[in-house]
Design brief:
Blueprint (H helix, E strand, L loop, with lengths): L3 E5 L8 H13 L4 H18 L5 H15 L11 H5 L9 H10 L2 E7 L3 H11 L5 E4 H4 L7 H7 L7 E6 L2 H10 L4 E4 L12 E3 L5 H11 L1
Parallel strand pairs: 1-2, 1-4, 2-3, 4-5, 5-6
Helix pairs in contact: 1-2, 2-3, 5-10
Length: 221
């Protein structure tokens, strides 16, 4: 019997990536510059990932924080270069996530994560979410970071003929654009209130309504 798979980005979609990073920037550099630093961090991280796709996410987090401090004339306190990596397991899970994932599972969907992270860091976040996932693909094990297509290519190799696959993510850049190019229908979780976009098959403001949206896409396919 064909399976129905929902794959997810983790950080930004299930776990509050912005909130986790911003809290560390605020702790290290103060409240006032935190928003500006976070915006610049969002530019630095994908640059480093594209330049060094074989680097672990710990290494990316550390290098991005060091570069951020250097280019803005700030000094990282001693021993704090790894602050983002150390804090990641405590980044908060969005409140809407557990119930939405449980409902999807109850309707017969298998869950997987395609994440730009390291295995142990993802495992800590999945434990915090508290809902079982059947599979996962992480950047540090495949030598590639999204938006490169390798996560989806690896996952597709595990599917059987007839399986349904829908991808769920918050980031247009990291997830919706590359998955759409591969012909994978997407549900965009527009947590940041961005302008409408034509690429996703469905757009939700949170994971509320996820299971119904997954079922609709499966029926249409």
């Amino acid at each position: 019997m064909a399976a129905r798979w929902a794959t997810f980005d983790c950080y930004g979609t299930l776990v509050d990536w912005n909130g986790g990073i911003r809290a560390e920037l605020e702790r290290l550099f103060g409240v006032e510059p935190a928003d500006e630093l976070l915006a610049r961090y969002h530019e630095l991280e994908p640059e480093l990932q594209a330049a060094s796709p074989g680097a672990s996410y710990r290494e990316v987090l550390t290098a991005a924080l060091e570069r951020l401090a250097a280019e803005t004339g700030r000094t990282l306190p001693e021993g704090e270069a790894s602050a983002l990596a150390r804090s990641l397991p405590s980044w908060p899970v969005f409140e809407d996530v557990p119930a939405a994932l449980q409902e999807a599972r109850a309707r017969g969907w298998k869950l997987a994560v395609l994440s730009n992270t390291d295995r142990d860091l993802l495992d800590a976040s999945l434990a915090a979410i508290g809902v079982p996932f059947e599979d996962s693909v992480v950047a540090s094990e495949i030598g590639s970071y999204k938006p490169s297509p390798r996560h989806w290519e690896v996952f597709r190799e595990r599917l059987r003929p007839g399986d349904v696959h829908v991808h769920v993510a918050q980031s247009l850049f990291h997830d919706v654009e590359p998955a759409s190019r591969l012909g994978i229908p997407c549900i965009w979780i527009n947590r940041l209130g961005e302008p409408p976009d034509p690429r996703p098959a469905r757009t939700l403001s949170s994971l509320a309504g996820l299971a119904a949206a997954l079922d609709e896409i499966a029926r249409e396919g």
